[in-house]
Amino acid sequence: MAKAPAPLSGGMINRVALTRALALDPEILFLDEPTSGLDPVSASAFDQLIHTLRDALRLTVFHVTRSRTLCAICDRVAMLSPQRVIAVGPLLGVANCDDRWIGEYFRGPVAKLHWPRCRNRARALRSKRERITC
After folding, report:
1. Model confidence at 130, in pLDDT bands (50, 70, 90)?
2. How many domains does the chain fold into?
């Protein structure tokens, strides 16, 4: 690579960091807000890259996010609020938990922009009954 990391865009820096992590051939990949600060198009492209790599390399991905990217790449989710796990399970099951905070996250004003697409993916993933802890 001819460029030093400083002149690279946020998306390129994330991809370089991901490449560095994958060079070690991990079984588990930890991502901490990898799309933070990216524009929506770049964030979506990064999510698709993670999804593709997860399937191709059979990775387990722990993805910490405050954004709706969990709908694009997560099969199972754990919701945290305030500093404790309040629900764990498949995306659709957790989204339907009887918790005020979870309800706001998945059914509040901002969620209405993202949730229909997310709900369709969650339904497609529902191949077996999994236990949900709320």
Report:
1. low
2. 2
Query: In this predicted model, what pLDDT tens digit does every residue of 75-124 receive, in sequence order?
Result: 788 888 888 999 999 888 888 888 888 888 877 776 666 666 666 665 65
Q: Considering the chain, what is the average pLDDT of its residues? A: 79
pTM of the full structure: 0.68
**Residue 90 sits in the same domain as residue 65:** no
Burial 52-84 (b: 16+ CB within 10 A, else e): ebbeeeeeebebebebbbbbbbbeebebeeeee
Calculate the dihedral angle through the C-alpha atoms of 129, 123, 127, 103, rounding to the nearest 10 degrees.
-20
Contact 66, 31 (CB under 8 A): no
Domain co-membership, 65 together with 20: yes
